[in-house]
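Researcher: Quick test of sequence recovery. Tokens follow.
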């Protein structure tokens, strides 16, 4: 049986009760919103991954945000079978996410193509409930649990 890819998900807040919602660029998932996230590379901690992904996906330098917390639990979700067949990471059936809470500093600007792959079409601030209602359903239980743990819900 395939395992789960270790992954760090980052809930980005402005410190005023809003969370960053990121809309994916791939048409297959058009209209799907999520948090920045990425696979944890060998030798990397989840926190290292969170910092790296905020740079790659949002163009943020480490001095533009603070990591405030990390979830005490990890959450698994499975990819659809059709995605597993096309996915270059075929040895995995899904991901096991640990969430991190990051707060951006006032006036920060986002650069969505800083790593050259443009994973997100656009970003916007919303409520935690907005993000939950618009995220891909398999990710919802883990995201909701992490937001509760971080005091956002």
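Model:
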């Amino acid at each position: 049986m395939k395992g789960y890819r270790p992954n760090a998900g980052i809930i980005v807040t402005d410190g005023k009760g809003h969370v960053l919602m990121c809309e994916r660029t791939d048409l297959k998932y058009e209209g799907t919103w999520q948090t920045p996230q990425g696979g944890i590379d060998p030798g990397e901690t989840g926190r290292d991954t969170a910092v790296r992904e905020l740079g790659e996906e949002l163009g943020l330098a480490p001095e533009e945000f603070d990591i405030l917390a990390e979830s005490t639990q990890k959450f698994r979700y499975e990819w659809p079978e059709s995605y597993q067949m096309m996915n270059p990471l075929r040895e995995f059936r899904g991901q096991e996410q640990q969430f991190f809470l990051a707060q951006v500093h006032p006036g920060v600007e986002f650069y969505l193509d800083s790593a050259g792959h443009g994973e997100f079409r656009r970003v916007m601030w919303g409520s935690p409930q907005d993000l939950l209602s618009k995220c891909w359903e398999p990710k919802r239980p883990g995201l909701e649990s992490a937001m509760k743990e971080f005091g956002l819900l």
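The CA atoms of residues 4 and 139 lie 14 Å apart.
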